[in-house]
Predict the structure.
Amino acid sequence: MLLQIDLQAEEPIYTQIMHQIIEGIAKKELKPGDDLPSVRSLASDIGINFHTVNKAYQLLKQEGYILIHRQKGVVIHPDGVEKATEAFYEELRRKVRPLIAESISRSVSKTEWEKICATIYEEIEPEEEQ
C-alpha cells in the first residue's frame, strides 16, 4: 500500500496517514499481521518530521488498528480490528452529524446524501470472494 500525502491539504498530515491506513485495512490491502514501515522510515520516505508519523501511529494504536513492538516493529493488529461497539456508534454519530447539517444547509437531499454514502462504501468495501 502506497500512502499519498498532500502536503498542501487542510487535513493534517498525521490524519491523512491514519485515514489511509484505516482505508487500507478496510479494503483488505493491509491484513492482520502485515508489517508497516517504522516511524523513522515512513517519515523519511514521505519527507516529513518523524513526530508526525509517530502521532498517527500512536492514535492508530490507541484505536486498536496497529501494534507497536520495540523489536518486531509496527504491524496491523494480528487479531484484526475490534467490532463496532455502542461507543463506536456514538462517536460515528458525533462525527457525521455536522456533515449532515452542512449538507442540509447546502440543499443536499437525503437521497443524494445516501447515494454519496453508498458510493463511497462500495468504493472501499472489498468484493466478496466467489
